[in-house]
Write a structure and sequence with these properties.
Helix content is about 30%, strand content about 15%. With about 250 residues, it is α/β, with parallel strands linked by helices. It has a 7-stranded mixed beta sheet. Strand 1 and strand 2 form a beta hairpin.
Length: about 250
């Protein structure tokens, strides 16, 4: 059996334990990795993937992270895998990720924009609606709420990017819900999308009235210099991020 991964550190965000294991620092098989994000983050994209068989000493999210390291996830690279126990972060938040694809189709408004501009969360569920599914969905909602509070933007489904790429128009929620005739992802969350979105908002509202303090550690006129410094800061503070001001 392959060795269980050991995270570099573990942090807690909005009640979710996040195991930080960046592929940018752990890449023994030299898998291809996304580049640093060039523009601002515009939101969070939610996906579903199925539960798999795992040993008793690990979690679904660790298993998927290990599968990525071992080249078993094809070209999929996401920021977070989330299960009923915890989350595993695979990519720094200043990186793009590869998650919004549709076989044989790519354009600047569909898969490219989703990959370049959103933080990706794969919520691991079985689809039965059991306690593990409920907890995994709750953890994904808590994490999404934290990310939206920190970075702003909209909450997207994989469907949204497929629909935009296929030339359909509408509001974000309309395209989140519209069948795309391809992925219908997140397959377990989408049928109750309004409920999930409300859950995310409830975790955001729960922080209303609580002071939030940020410490600025640098100011740069050049984005590349800021990205280089962020890479150093994130070695000790993985939640660090860049905020652009006009």
């Amino acid at each position: 059996m392959a060795a269980i991964l050991i995270p570099d550190n573990v942090i807690s965000c909005n009640g979710v334990s996040i195991n930080c294991y960046m592929l940018t620092g752990h890449n023994p098989n030299k898998i291809s990795l996304p580049s640093v994000r060039k523009g601002d983050c515009i939101g969070v994209t939610i996906h579903n993937t199925n539960r798999v068989n795992i040993s008793a000493n690990t979690t679904q999210a660790e298993q998927y992270t290990r599968a990525t390291v071992n080249r078993n996830m094809g070209t999929v690279r996401v920021h977070f895998y989330v299960d009923d126990k915890c989350a595993w972060q695979n990519l720094p938040l200043n990186c793009q990720s590869w998650h919004a694809g549709q076989s044989g189709k790519a354009d600047k408004n569909g898969s490219e924009k989703g990959n370049e501009s959103t933080i990706s969360i794969e919520c691991i569920m079985g689809g039965s609606g059991d306690e593990k599914d409920i907890k995994a969905r709750d953890n994904a909602a808590r994490l999404a709420a934290h990310l939206l509070d920190s970075y702003g933007g909209e909450l997207y489904t994989h469907n949204y990017w497929c629909n935009v790429r296929n030339g359909r128009t509408g509001t974000v929620d309309e395209l989140n819900m519209l069948d795309d005739e391809y992925k219908n992802c997140p397959v377990f969350i989408r049928p109750k999308w309004a409920e999930f979105k409300g859950l995310v908002e409830s975790y955001r509202k729960s922080q209303t009235g609580q002071a939030r303090y940020f410490v600025q550690v640098g100011a740069f006129a050049d984005r590349e210099n800021a990205e280089n410094y962020l890479a150093e800061v994130k070695k000790d503070y993985p939640g660090a991020f860049i905020k652009a001001f006009e």
